[in-house]
Design a protein that fits this description.
Elements lengths: L2 H25 L13 H25 L3 H15 L10
Helix pairs in contact: 1-2, 1-3, 2-3
Amino acid sequence: METHLVVLGILQVVTVLIYGWVGRVFLSQPRYNHPSIFHSPAARLVLCYGPLVAMVVLVVLAFVLTESPWLFLGLTVAGFVASSVRPDRDLLR
């Protein structure tokens, strides 16, 4: 297995997990229920946009450095969809 693919995959898993955490504790919660780390505008900016930018950068690096970039892109999209915040079913009724 390619070393670059493994390293990029580990970084992408960490990025997707951070994206999922931010979605659960910040994006889907009311303002009064945010953790204190999100009270800083700089930290909020980094935590909200950082994982998305990192995902795009890692996908571009996968196309440059690996022999199977489409597999990496597919797994990234699957992780992104799986960790995305879903609306509450009670709100959809």
